[in-house]
Design goal:
This protein is globular. By secondary structure, the protein is of the alpha/beta class. The strands form three sheets. Strands 5-4-6-7-1-8-14-13-9-10 form a ten-stranded mixed β-sheet, with helices on both faces. It contains 13 helices and 14 strands. Helix 10 packs across helix 11. The chain has two domains: 6-255, Peroxisomal Thiolase, Chain A, domain 1; 260-409, Peroxisomal Thiolase, Chain A, domain 1 (3-Layer(aba) Sandwich), CATH 3.40.47.10. It has helices at 21-29, 65-68, 73-89, 111-124, 133-137, 141-150, 165-179, 196-204, 243-248, 277-290, 308-322, 335-338, 345-359, and strands spanning 6-14, 36-37, 50-51, 100-105, 156-159, 184-191, 234-242, 255-264, 299-301, 331-332, 361-362, 385-386, 391-398, 402-409.
């Protein structure tokens, strides 16, 4: 049976660098940083005082106030990013609702709602807990909200594999479209965990940078002075569409999705495999799925979280797959500019990868001032670079040993 081709026909982004694909991309290639001191709650007693907050995000501009009250911030972000992608795709009234689906990733779901309602329970009693608590906190609220907004009645699912959630969601969407389960799937991820509990809990794990006096330089993937990741929020939504379906309706075809790989480390619940073996297998599977060889890849958007173990493990994984060519393939981490969006990171980074492909521009790894000797690849330090790109790869690795890799090609 002939395998159906899959393309990207729309994208939407809510990020700490801006609340559109263009503002996000402009920030990346201008080497700007979206990480700031947190102002929406008092961090004075916390070990960490900063994060990647989407300060330009104002749901009241685009969502009815009555709906806002029934939606956690992560679902609001998913909805507005999906609207952006929907408009770019040109679907509007030109689709069969039962052939359009939604597969989104989120690592945690409505954390802010959990915190707020638990506080109400303790301070005011069970009778004061909101009737909207469960619909707001449930992890599938993002995918459900997008489906309801547009009337999409096809496959609808939420993937929760920590920081690999959006990557796994995109892999599932690709496979579903190839099988013929749908003609169009909205995919990617959303997350909003820059909350008191989110900051406190990740800080308690010693996972976060504590560079409170210099937030803009705290995220420094592959730098020997890195001291942890930066917790961030946002959404990255992409429209994956079967090629012939997109072509016949005259859709904008941004690129082709040609492969994906998903694996597990089966090791530690938090730490990556020290040799990066699970990540390497995900990349190898993605290449096999794309029917490509390592020498065909022109750029890798790294998971690159700015953690000591993770950056080394990913570097080893790239070397294991690419061999001597690893030193010739540009690799960069856009988390240096926006921090770590957890379950949304893969969606936002896929958008960065596609924008790189379309503009022949490599987004930089900013704050890379003192390279770690164990991280010795070309990480496109500090400044964007022109390059001729045909194939790009995006990595997402998560707590629990989850690994996902997606490959895109110019069309």
């Amino acid at each position: 049976m002939h395998e159906r081709r899959v393309v990207v026909s729309g994208m939407g982004a809510i990020t700490p660098l801006g609340c559109s694909v263009s503002s996000f991309w402009d920030g990346l290639i201008s080497s700007r940083c979206g990480i700031r001191t947190i102002e929406h709650f008092d961090c004075s007693r916390f070990d960490v005082h900063f994060g990647g907050v989407c300060t330009d995000f104002d749901p009241a501009r685009e969502i009815d106030p009555r709906r806002i009250k029934r939606m956690d911030r992560f679902a609001q972000m998913a909805l507005i990013a999906a609207r952006q992608a929907f408009i770019e795709s040109g679907l509007q009234d030109n689709f069969d609702p039962v052939r359009v689906g939604v597969i989104l990733g989120t690592g945690i779901g409505g954390l802010a709602e959990i915190e707020e309602q638990h506080l109400r329970l303790l301070q005011k009693g069970p009778g004061k807990v909101s009737a909207f608590t469960i619909p707001k906190l449930m992890a599938n609220a993002g995918s459900a909200t997008v489906s309801i907004e547009f009337g999409f009645q096809g496959v609808n699912a939420t993937v929760s594999t920590a920081c690999a959630s959006a990557g796994n969601a995109m892999a599932d969407a690709l496979r579903s479209l190839r099988r013929g389960d749908a003609d169009v799937i909205f995919t990617g991820g959303t997350e909003a965990t820059v909350t008191p509990l989110g900051i406190a809990a990740f800080a308690a794990m010693k996972a976060l940078s504590t560079r409170n006096d210099d937030p803009e330089h705290a995220s420094r993937p592959f730098d020997k002075d890195r001291d942890g990741f930066i917790l961030s929020e946002g959404a990255g939504i992409l429209v994956f569409e079967e090629y012939e379906h997109a072509r016949k309706r005259g859709a904008p075809i941004l690129c082709e999705v040609i492969g994906a790989g998903t694996t597990a480390d089966a090791g530690d619940i938090v730490q990556p495999d020290p040799e990066g073996r699970g990540g390497a297998r995900a990349m190898a599977e993605a290449l096999a799925s794309a029917r490509l060889n390592p020498e065909d890849v022109d750029y890798i958007n790294a998971h690159g979280t700015s953690t000591m173990l993770g950056d080394i493990a990913e570097t080893k994984a790239i070397k294991a797959v690419f061999g001597s060519r690893a030193y010739k393939v540009p690799v960069s981490s856009t988390k240096s500019a926006v921090g770590h969006l957890l379950g949304a990171s893969g969606g936002v980074e896929a958008i960065a990868s596609i924008m790189a492909l379309r503009s022949n521009t490599l987004p930089p790894t900013i704050n890379l001032e003192h390279p770690d000797p164990e991280c010795d690849l070309d990480y496109v330090p500090n400044t964007a670079r022109d390059a001729r790109l045909q194939v790009v790869m995006s990595n997402s690795f998560g707590f629990g040993g989850h690994n996902a890799c997606v490959v895109f090609r110019k069309i």
